[in-house]
Design goal:
By secondary structure, the chain is mainly alpha-helical. Helices cover 60% and strands 5% of the residues. It has ten helices and two strands; from the N terminus they run H-H-E-E-H-H-H-H-H-H-H-H. Strands 1-2 form a two-stranded antiparallel ribbon. The longest helix is centred in the N-terminal third of the chain and has 20 residues. The chain is elongated and about 85 Å long.
């Protein structure tokens, strides 16, 4: 997930992984016989809802339905982890990468779609090597890129996404 660096950088990853647990909603006050709303609970709840909102706003429509009804950032995070880390989902995405074709799309659109699948597989713990990514890209480009693909496939080192894009864009 691309939210991970943000959550870690903000120091709030403990909310989504469950290590920063919710304080008790009430605390005993005075002689220990009356309850009062715990201000730590209110602050924790506010922070958690802010994180949940950030998570929800970062999701695409394709996965947003998975977390409808989740009441906490931890619940949403774990739901997404379970749904997106499944082996069958990874196989579907890998199949999508293998079947990826440029069609009528621009080079940029095609490569963005491929890169998104590449990143999703990596996030699911099923990374695709850069060499394989190059091959999927070469296979998916339209026939007009045949000469370019022939010259690029002979390179010793696989090309980065940026290098592939810079080579293919002028030929579009």
């Amino acid at each position: 997930m691309q939210m991970l660096p943000y959550l870690l950088g903000q120091g709030v990853f403990g909310f989504v992984d469950g290590s920063n647990t919710c304080p008790s909603p009430h605390v005993l006050v005075g002689d220990g016989t009356s309850l009062q709303v715990n201000p730590l609970f209110l602050h924790w709840k506010q922070q958690d809802q802010f994180i949940l909102s950030a998570l929800l706003s970062s999701l695409s429509m394709e996965v947003l339905h998975l977390v409808v009804g989740c009441q906490s950032s931890c619940s949403a995070w774990h739901t997404l982890e379970q749904a997106l880390a499944s082996t069958s989902n990874s196989r579907i995405m890998q199949g999508s990468l293998q079947d990826l074709r440029q069609g009528d799309e621009s080079v940029t659109q095609f490569m963005q779609k491929a890169k998104a699948l590449f990143n999703e597989l990596a996030a699911d713990g099923q990374p695709v090597s850069l060499e394989d990514f190059n091959l999927y890209m070469f296979r998916g480009l339209r026939g007009e890129f045949k000469d370019l693909v022939t010259s690029l496939i002979t390179k010793v080192e696989p090309l980065s996404y940026v290098d592939l894009h810079s080579h293919a864009s002028p030929h579009a």
